[in-house]
Structures are given as structure tokens and as C-alpha cells.
Amino acid sequence: MMLINGEPNRQISPADRGLAYGDGFFTTAKVVRGKVEFWRDHVERLMLASKKFAIELPSLLTLFSEVQTAIAGVELGCLKILITRGEGGRGYSGAGCENPTRIISVTPWPAQYQLWQRSGIALAPCQYQLGLNPQLAGYKTLNRLDQVLIKQELESLDVDDVIVCDINGYVVESSAANVFWFEQGTLYTPDLSQAGVNGVMRKQVLRCAEQLEIPVNIVKFKLDQLAQVDSMFITNTLMGLVPIKQFQQRVLTDFSLVQRLQQEIKDD
Amino acid sequence: MMLINGEPNRQISPADRGLAYGDGFFTTAKVVRGKVEFWRDHVERLMLASKKFAIELPSLLTLFSEVQTAIAGVELGCLKILITRGEGGRGYSGAGCENPTRIISVTPWPAQYQLWQRSGIALAPCQYQLGLNPQLAGYKTLNRLDQVLIKQELESLDVDDVIVCDINGYVVESSAANVFWFEQGTLYTPDLSQAGVNGVMRKQVLRCAEQLEIPVNIVKFKLDQLAQVDSMFITNTLMGLVPIKQFQQRVLTDFSLVQRLQQEIKDD
């Protein structure tokens, strides 16, 4: 199912600036029984990006109504909302682009995530290092070539995901998820001021930890400092919270804290 | 005039990875009397990017033939060749994308560049700082949100272009051109190992300087070090070599060296 500017269209203009320059942003949400999980957080993310890039969103009523049309009857699915500055002329100027493009699409939910949540996955370090970009860090923009190249590397390895560092060697995220770890009862996650995406599920985890009075530390950590952790997990809105059962040579068996967070984090 | 995969089409698929992730690259060339200037350099640039991102190019015969169709009868124009990984599914994996998209388009040449080449332009420093990304630096990828935001800033200023630095304060480029300066007979241009686009015209300038036995220095220079320069110019394939007549409060009047390069750099 796909709606482009509200129409069941399957074509966009080659002059769309989303294609020419990655001039836009997106969010991906889990749909469960015809309902978008954490809808308010996704809207908040879209509004922050809209302000940052000066690309106007449709009214929330329009957006909600089109999303409802797209997800009607969907038992389990991935909703993607992609916004671009719309059609433009040659060159970087977005002046005069008055009609942003919105693409709302629904695809199947990856079934392996259920097993991942229960049994955990194996991670390896990634050789590819993320650039530093404090201007774009945190946002889920259409500039995702780094992630494409990271995924290429992951597909050459015999693991489920990779831990990606930035060019200074600081841990940032996995190939498509935020990363957390516990050490002596404190929850850690990387600082995202220079690189990485500030995920909707990451926010939920931090909110939940606060409610449970779990101490949280947002840090710049190098890869070798992860050797000491008691447990790890990765998160995004589609996979939820996925424990790590193996990282490099180390086998991690204590899933108790991540399981507690898995139970607590629910969409209201 | 536009050809998509060889057809005079005006539509692309919303599942094209160029749109979803900026998963592709492009080059822009000047067309003069039905001929592409510096064609071999543009092909070399496309081949380097093809190898880097593992996106197959069409055969050079196909590419050349489609370009000839697109530029037939064009007196002065801008040719853009844009290549993406083609249609794909959800997620960063490009596995199975066997049919890259190629978009060949021709638009009018911006007429002001003729005046710019002769009379020079005024530059100001840019507040927006480029991120560092040694993996993508040099390539003209479809990830150009930085340039979109830089252009937004430029449009709020009363100058022709801006000098952009990276987050460490090193001069990289202008909003859409490479930058050069002369000091005591030596030609300087920024190192592009961390940020910036390695332009086709930049290569021509370096080649020409070598032929003329002008000493060249590829440097990491901070903005305040530009206060001492004797003359400056910016370059891309569309504007050619454009002298700078004013930078910040300083008026630069000696165009002799850039004029010499302008005369020497010709497509064979």
C-alpha cells in the first residue's frame, strides 16, 4: 500500500529533490492491529525535522487520515512516512519549492524480529566508520549512504548486526538501531551529538529507565570499553528491544534487565 | 530534455533507492555547441563512484549515445548524469538491486556565469560547517543536505557565494564550487580528504598549474589565513574559473593569474 500526496500513485517526478539531493526526512513505525505504535513520538520527530530543514508538513489531520487509510486492516506492518522538499530546478536552492512530497507506505513486518527479541543476536564491530556531522546528527534524513555501505559490510559477515563507531572511535549505533548496555546497574547509551539517529524507541527506553529509577549515562565510549559490560541490547521501533547474546568473542547470557524493559515499554 | 534509462520518461518509482537513501551519485557538465566539455573526466568520476558504491554503470557506448541524444542541438547547457542503485525494498540492503537507474537531463546554462568569469564575485564566510566524512569525501553523491542548508544560508546574505569550512574550521569549498588562492606565486587549494567534492574543474586547474610550472600546495587552511592571499577564485564545470573581487572586508583586484588559467584551460 502506498499513497503519494494522498493518491494511490506509484510514480514520482525525477526532479524531486528527495532524489536529487536527499533533501528530506522519514520515519518508520510499527503497525499492530491497525494502530501505529508511538504515533505521537513519530509526529514529534517529523515536526522537529520539518523545522530544521524548513520543509512544511501536511496538516496533522491530513497525515493521520492518510496513515489510517494506508494501515487499515494491517495486522503487523512497517509504516514509512517520507517527506521531501518536492520538485525543484537544477542546483541546491530550495527557494520556490512550495509543494513538499509525502510518501506513505506499508510493508510487511520482518518476522525474524520476534525471535530476535526472545533469543538475542550476535554482533561484530564494523570496520566502516561514521562521519561526524553535528548539524545533521540525530535526524533521520534521506542522506543515508553511510548506512547503505555499513549494510554492505554487514552482509559480508556471519553475524546479525554490527556495532558502528565514528571516525574518532566512539560507539554510535548498530547498522539500523540504537545501542544500550548495562554495567553495574547503570544503563549506558552513546551520545548522538556528532553522528547517529535519535530513534523513537531510544527515547522510550530512556523514558522508561527514568520511571524505573534506573541510573542512565549518555556517554562517549570506545569499543574496547564494551568488553566490561554486563548486558547489551539494540533498539528501533520495528525490532523493539533486542538483547545481544554474543559480541566479538564474548557470550552474554543475562537478559533479565532488557526483559524487564521489554515488558515495561508499551504504547499507551 | 530528459532520458530515464534511455526513454523520454518523466517518472521514477518511489521505491528508487536514490530517493529513499540518496543511494547514488551524479555529475554535471557544461555543454557547448552540442559537445560535453571534459567528457573523459566526467566518465572517470562516474567510474570511480560506480566502483566505490558498487553500482554498475551502463556501457560507455550506451551512456555516450544517450548523452548525444539529450544534447543534440544544444548551444549552451548543463548536462546532468544521475545514477542510483535502482528500485529496492525496505531497509538499507541493496542486495538484489540489479537495475540501476540513470537519469540524463539538460537544462539551460546560468547566463550570469559569463559576467562572473569576467568581473568576479563577492564572497562571505558561511556559518554552517561541513561534517567530516573521509569515506564519502571527494565523491559527488546524492547525499547533499549539507549543500541545501548552505544554500539556504547563502540566500539570506547579500553576496554571490560563501566560503564553507568544516567543523574543525578548515576551509573546504564554496556553496557549490572548489576554491583556490594565490600567495606569492604559489597556488593553494584545500585538502579534500575529510569533506568536499573533488570537482572536474579542480582537476583541470591542478593539471594546468603543473603544465605551467606553477607551484601547488594542497592544504588545511583556516579562514583567517585567507586574509593574506593575493588573489582567489572558485571553480566548477559550469562556471569555469570565477575570480573573487571581495572577501569579507577585503577588495581583491589582481585577476591576472586566474585570467591566465582561464585562457589555458580548454577542453581538447
Concise summary:
Chain A has 7 helices and 14 strands. Chain A is an alpha+beta fold and 268 residues long.
Description:
- The structure is a homodimer of 268-residue chains.
- With 268 residues, chain A is an alpha+beta fold.
- Chain A has helices at residues 17-21, 39-53, 60-71, 112-119, 145-154, 200-211, 256-264; strands at residues 2-4, 24-32, 35-36, 76-84, 101-108, 121-125, 161-165, 171-174, 178-183, 186-190, 216-219, 231-236, 240-247, 250-251.
- Chain A folds into two domains: 2-109, D-amino Acid Aminotransferase, Chain A, domain 1 (2-Layer Sandwich); 114-264, Alpha-Beta Barrel (D-amino Acid Aminotransferase, Chain A, domain 2), CATH 3.20.10.
- In chain A, the strands form two sheets. In chain A, strands 6, 7, 8, 9, 10, 11, 12, 13 and 14 form a nine-stranded mixed sheet that branches. A five-stranded antiparallel sheet of chain A has the order 1-5-4-2-3.
- In chain A, a hairpin with a 5-residue loop joins strand 7 (161-165) and strand 8 (171-174).
- The two termini of chain A are 26 Å apart.
- At the A-B interface, helix 1, strand 4, strand 5 and helix 5 of A face helix 1, strand 4, strand 5 and helix 5 of B.
